[in-house]
Structure formats: C-alpha cells, structure tokens
Amino acid sequence: MIKAPDKPLTSLVNLEQPLSIEGYIEAGGYQGAEKALHHLSRAEVLTLVEDSTLKGRGGAGFPTGMKWKCVPMYEPGDINAPECKYLVCNADEMEPGTFKDRVLLEGVPHQLIEAMIIAAYTIGAEKAYIFLRGEYHLAARRLQQAIDEAYRNNWLGEKIQGTDVHLDLYLHSSAGRYICGEETALINALEGKRANPRAKPPFPQFSGLFGKPTVVNNVETLSNLPHILKHGADWFKGLSPDSDAGTKIYAACGRVKTPGTWELPMGATIRELLYDHGGGMLDGLKLKGLLPGGASTDFLLPEHLDTPMDFNSIAKAGSRLGTGGLIVLDDHNCPVSMVLNLLQFFAQESCGWCTPCRDGTPWAVEVLSRIEQGQGNKEDLDTLAKLCDFMWLGKTHCALAPGAVEPLKSALKYFHDDFEQHIDQGCCPYHGGH
Questions:
Q1: In the 3-class helix/strand/coil scheme, how is the chain assigned residue by residue?
Q2: Which fold has domain 21-238?
Q3: The pTM is what?
C-alpha cells in the first residue's frame, strides 16, 4: 500500500525528465482511474468529489462537484440524450504572476491525463481537450508524448482497460490572448471563433463546446482527482487545518530572495509563504504591498501578513485568493508604475466586446501614464476612481475589466499619497524624471 503523500500534486513532479507511463504506474499512478472505472459508478465518483469539497483552483473557487452536478445525466437509450459531451482542461495560464499549472504540465503530465479520465467518466464525456497556452512549448511536447503513451497502453481510446468506457483526448495549443482563460471565450476559441466570452446563461454545462454539455476545469483542480479517488474525501479534507480542503500550489515573484512555487496546505499564511518559503525581501528592501492571487486581485499590505491564503480569509481582507500567486511590491518600486504596467497588459488583452473594457482600460492607461510622467493633476485621481466604477462587476460583459481595475482601485486606496506625490512633484518620486 503506497502511503498517501502530504503534497500529492507535486510529489511526482520532475521538471528535468517527467515519469514515463511505466514509471508513473510504478509510483502508484492510474490507481485512481482504475478504481473509478472498475469499482465505482459515475454517481459514486461524483459523490466522492462532492464530499471532498474540492474547489476550483483557477481563481473562482467554485465547488467542483457542484459544477459537475449541473451536467445533464441521461439513462441509456434516452432519446433526449445529447450525441456527445465534452471535458475541457483550461491550461491557458496567462495570469501575470501565475505559473503553478506549468509545473504540473511539464513535471507530471500523466497525472493530468489520469485526472481527465476520471472527470470524463464521471460526467459521461467521450471527448476531451487540453487547451494549452501557446507559449508553453515544452509542456506541449511532454503532454503529447504522455497522451501517445496513454493510447498505446489503453488508458485512452476504445474500451479503456477492458471497460465500456471510451475517451479521446486532444491537445490544442492556443493562438494566444489572456481572455481565453475565461471558459466561454476558451470554448469559442476551441471552435475556431474569435475568443469573445459568451453571454450566460446558457452555461457550458448545458450548452458549451459545439452546443453540447461541457465542463471546463483548471489544471490544478483536475490534478487533485486521482488522489481523492485513491485516498478518499476525508484524507483530502485532512490535508488542511483550514475550512478549505486540500493543498494549494502557491507562488511568489518580485524582489524576494527565493521566488518559486510551493505546495502547501490550504490556509498557509501570507507570512509563511513569503518569508518561510520565499526567503523574505531582498536585502535593503521592505515590503510595501502585494497582490495575493495574480495580477487581477486587490493589493494587501504588511498588516495582512498573517492572513490565511484561503478563499474566505483573503476575501475578508479585501482581495481574492485568485491563483494563489503573490506579486510582491517593495518600498523601492513605484506603485503607480506597477499599476500602469498591469493596466497596459489588460488593455492589450481586452477582446473589445464591451465598451467599458474596450475603452475604459486604454483610458486608464492614458491617465496613469500622465501621472507617472509627472503631467497629472488632481482631477485625474477622480477620473481613475470613476473608471473603476465604470468597469466594475455587473457593468461589463465578463470579469476581465473588473479584474483589471482591482489593483488600480486598491492602489488608489492604499497608496494615495504616492499618486499625489507624482502630481505635486511633477515627476515620479521613485524614478526621478522618468
């Protein structure tokens, strides 16, 4: 009996040379899929995932079991049953400050394939896609090699491992754009259309890829499934002392001593992540603020260091857990310049579908550029505040614009003096005349 790992997602990661299918099976791989296919009904697997309380690791934190439960299930022979259902893995990791999925894709590709077999079996899908960020060339090569191995060993294709289960898995490299991370924009891109988000409802679970029921899950979310199947829901919940179950792959980047990724129990504090694992700030620098979950989250301050990195605690502190990737701002870097850099990215990545995002993000870039160059005035701060409201939740077609203004809105709140110094001094106080 193989001992249940404390860090299940990364226990078999090897970034130099990932395990072949033989090595993965020898290490306990495909046992979760074998249990699902041979010993559990679809309903029993769904119940197990629900009981584990697994939440989405892509940013939204939606309960995985609840998402799957929305997929229409039909009895054999039902004339109303759709011809096909689809499972899609969202591997379009383009959130600045986030690189957790890349570790899993490059370091243990068979884990994701096993997870997709389990998920596809549960929802009754016979076709699945991995929608991969186009720049992840090494991940693409390793994934395709693992998919080929899985076909040769009858873990994909017809009558998997002697069962009646069939699954074809395709790797699709994205043509690019951040907006493809939004699940309905991803679906449009997968269909060969422009990557614009769709109006919801209908939700993808009812009408998704090619109009058929579709589930879209993140790489890290799916990767938990083999371990939940092998070791049970109680084991998964026991991995974390926090209200959110399981582990999380956290990351830290910026001017810290040892930037990187670490798999820790859900609810590890920001202080533990930044100082125990990230090594703290570089010598001579102090922490000024940080984005806790990637570029599209609100700033938090040093006073928030003891906040647990879970969905509820970060929300109570005024931000979002997002992808769990810390972007650290030190006291020698300009918050106005940092926010300008982020807004330039979001303005470039807007799909242009709705007016607040299409016109609001470039407008924010224009105003921030003036302030950073020492040409701003006090009215510009009012304009930025109005733009934050103009692009907020409920006023845009999707969540790109609200996410884009989260760092801006919180920077205006926490670093207001820095904005005013730019205006009063006629230059950036951090970068001189820049």
A1: CCCCCCCCCCCCCCCCCCCCHHHHHHCCCCHHHHHHHHHCCHHHHHHHHHHHCCECCCCCCCEHHHHHHCCCCCCCCCCCCCCCCEEEEEECCCCCCCCHHHHHHHHCHHHHHHHHHHHHHHHCCCEEEEEECCCCHHHHHHHHHHHHHHHHCCCCECCHHHCCCCEEEEEEECCCCHHHHCHHHHHHHHCCCCCCCCCCCCCCCCCCHHHCCEEEEEHHHHHCHHHHHHHCHHHHHHCCCCCCCCEEEEEEECCECCCEEEEEECCCEHHHHHHHHCCCECCCCCEEEEEECECCCCCECHHHCCCECCHHHHHHHCCCCCCCEEEEEECCCCHHHHHHHHHHHHHHHCCCCCHHHHHHHHHHHHHHHHHHCCCCCHHHHHHHHHHHHHCCCCCCCCCHHHHHHHHHHHHHHHCHHHHHHHHHHCCECCCECC
A2: Rossmann fold (3.40.50)
A3: 0.93
